[in-house]
Amino acid sequence: MSSPPPTMNDLKTSAQEQLEYMLTEDDDAPLLTADNEIKVEARECMKKLFTRFNSLVESLLCESKESVSNAEKLQPFQSYLADLLWACQILAKLEIMRELVSHWVEASEHILKVLQLVSLEAAMLEMKLKVIEVTTKVSEAIGYGTVILPTAKRLHMVRIWLPHVRALKPLMDSSTNDVEDVLKMDGELWQSLESAFVSIILTLPSLDQAEILSDWLGNKDIRYPDLTEAIEVWCYRSKVANKRLAYLGGTHGMARML
């Protein structure tokens, strides 16, 4: 998770692949045991990585739009995204995703502000997709209960990222043939992100769910993400809740009459 010079990128990638392999369980036992010492070291490295990433994000926000869209300026940003995506893989194997998830949620608003300064050229869109990959890993950890966050942070995650992916997906779908290969993204990833959003939304208070779902129904970009499942579950839960309230009200009334 360090940040060596670009000339050492190949060596860094090789080291990352080897470490991931040593932590992977297959037919044989993993070569490294995920003990407390390794977990502590991994957490510290992740914190340092995110501190450097945050510093870069803050510095980019101080630049002009023309400067930020410069490919050379964004190269470190892209490198950090690749490292964060790899960190997601390692921390998930070690079952210590909480810190990374919390840091990503807190930094989300500033990350999106940087993306808003970036042009829509193919190389820049590729970088935006890398952000979506990290966001998907974070959303899955939250949505499927791997990382438990307070309601306010879960709601913040949805309100920040849902409008962004809703606008970005049509851009990917309408990309020209010239950039098709660059922007080609596994459909399963979009599906994974959609499912994670549905799971997160269904953990929120009913009134917050209603607000998010009403906004989705009234938006022209309703094609993605598809929140139909969330609406169906919300309607079912609301109906059951109303029945219970009506039953309790009737029971209390009978008790008073007796």
From TrEMBL:
Name of this protein: BTB/POZ domain-containing protein At3g05675-like
Lineage of source species: Eukaryota, Viridiplantae, Streptophyta, Embryophyta, Tracheophyta
PANTHER family noted in UniProt: OS07G0668800 PROTEIN, OSJNBA0011J08.25 PROTEIN-RELATED
